[in-house]
Amino acid sequence: MRIRLPPAVFRNITSHTHTYAHLSAFSFPKQKRFLNTHSQNTQFAITPQSARKMSTASSAPSTAMNSTATSSADATAASSQSDLALPQSSPYVPRYIDIGINLTDRQFHGEYHGKQVHQSDLDDIVQRGRLGGVEKLMLTGSCLKESKAALEIAQNYPGYMYTTVGVHPCSAKDLTNHRAGHAAYIDSLRTLALSSPLVAAFGEIGLDYDRLYHASVEEQKLAFTMQLDLAGELGLPLFLHSRAAAEDFEAILFPRLPRLKGGLVHSFTGSMDEMKRIVGAGLYVGVNGCSLKTEENLAVMKEIPLDRLMIETDGPWCEIRPTHASSKYLKDAPALPKAVKKERFVAGTNQLIKGRNEPVCISQVAYVIANVKGISIEEVCEAAWKNTVDVFGLGVKTAE
Ligand SMILES: [Zn+2]
Fold this sequence. Notes:
Residues 46-74 are annotated as: Disordered. With 400 residues, this protein is α/β, with parallel strands linked by helices.
């Protein structure tokens, strides 16, 4: 389908593309990345924002024409040419919120295993995500220090980035063995959480019995319970992590839920029963590449109700790999920029790093979900968007 637009509407679109003029190096392999399959032949350059503008214009054509036409001659010319008619249906442009992204990880700053391999490309990562339709990020905090660092990054991208504050179960010792005592550490977490409206959630907190070498069961349980009490006091929704610990996780969390503000179990890799219990408790389920590795993972994901789903990358980890069960559901997913080995990375050339997951890759998660569930990408993206905004807000007006 070739979409022809009246000059006035086209002006609307082109006036918005200039926002990305400085990103001309950031061309993607195929323009189709912004469009779903029935509109791949659209002839003009388009950004997620401009396309949304077009969508608005097409749903109210008379307003768009009247407000932008510069003369009655323009309007007459446009309306007299049938091939300039507005499209009957506009292509849907996917929009994403990556609710789990670890931007404090040194990989996003060019450092791997303590060694600086290339210069920081954080700005490029962010802009690439924006061009790919990622409209918000929620940065994960994993201890007091990392939560502070996440907030510092978010403050450089106001309105675009939000953060969590909390101590990951693998860092539980930071809290339980703090030299000034846990109360002092909890006080510092409280102060940080209250310091900025960009703190949207309390987390990442929970239990991880796959990695007991970082912190024992008792240390993890103590850190989890103390932080749940603090989250309740602060009235922040939860960003939760549960790995190989479902029984204890639920025994600690579920009785406290009436005093808490709800939240999300992110990076979900549990069983069907576990998923159903989480949903039954009123919580949401976060899906990333790690949630889609096996056929069993896919079967569980397929049953997550759409009104309980959120999506994430958990970058730099949890990418979708060709060996994963999910990869066969990527056939119609947008092409991503080329990935190179970190040693071969050239700054400013729009390259991904092999093995480093980042926000622009979230489209792959959404397409796998849509294809496994047998629904449209629009249904997946809009459900995840609504759920995320309902729980975490992230500065989106409730009227939207
Ligand atoms: Zn996690």
